[in-house]
Amino acid sequence: MRDIEAATGEDLGSSRVGGKKRKGKKKKYPNLSDLKQSSDTSRSRLERKVFNKSTMRRVAQVLSKADRRKHDKFSNQFNYALN
Fold first, then answer.
1. What is this structure's pTM?
2. Residues 6 or more apart whose Cβ sits within 8 Å of residue 81
């Protein structure tokens, strides 16, 4: 790899390969999950969007409108009005 670098004059990264390996700091409790990292999961991001106050209001409005429409359609038939 180094001879190719010498011939072309380009750095292909051979200086990084096989360098000194440094030991990282050992975790005190390796099996515990990091609470700060787990707060930004896909579930929490979706919860912020789905359970937003304006979103809940909009969904409730659409559902009540659908219920009202069904009630108007079947108001004279008791069985269908409640389902």
1. 0.42
2. 70, 71, 74, 75
